[in-house]
Amino acid sequence: MYFDPFFNIMQFLVPIFFLIIFVVIIFTLIKGIKEWNYNNKQPIVPVTATIVSKRASVSHNHHTDNHMSTTSTTYYVTFEYTNGQRQEFHVNGNQYGLLAEGDKGTLSFQGTRFIDFKREF
Predict the structure, then answer these.
(1) Is Transmembrane set as a keyword in this record (predicted)?
(2) Are 50 and 36 members of one domain?
(3) Residue 16: phi, psi to the nearest 5?
(4) Which tens digits make up the pLDDT trace of 79-115?
């Protein structure tokens, strides 16, 4: 009988690899559900704030099997409250395009969730 140590190692590592991936996916789902639940329990808070910065995070994925690539952009806006505290929120592309650095107004948020920003004129 032929004994292949590589085969024995792979019999052990492949299930461990899939178990790690499964645990990471479950952990990510639980974390997302907890944040969603936390936000839903918070009151919607209106505060006076100024937009101090905007940023976009672009990620590229190239798929070698079908020679295609995808790009996604995540948008963030940082607000500063009248007491000097700053908080960054994830916003969608439409909201991002309507907001400008230096704008002052009323920010509404719920936990870590951006709700709205009403600019003062």
Answers:
(1) yes
(2) no
(3) -65, -40
(4) 999 999 999 999 999 999 999 999 999 999 999 999 9
The residues near 43 (Cβ < 8 Å, ≥ 6 apart) are 110
Q: What are residue 7's phi and psi, to 5 degrees?
A: -65, -40
What pLDDT score does 68 carry? 84
pTM recorded for the entire structure: 0.73
To 5 degrees, how large is the angle CA 85–CA 86–CA 89? 145
**CATH code of the domain covering residue 85:** 2.40.50.660
Helices (H) and strands (E) in the chain, counts: 2, 5
pLDDT band at 4 (very low <50, low <70, confident <90, very high): low
Number of domains in the chain: 2
Q: Which domain holds residue 74?
A: 43-119
**Same domain membership, residue 52 and residue 19:** no
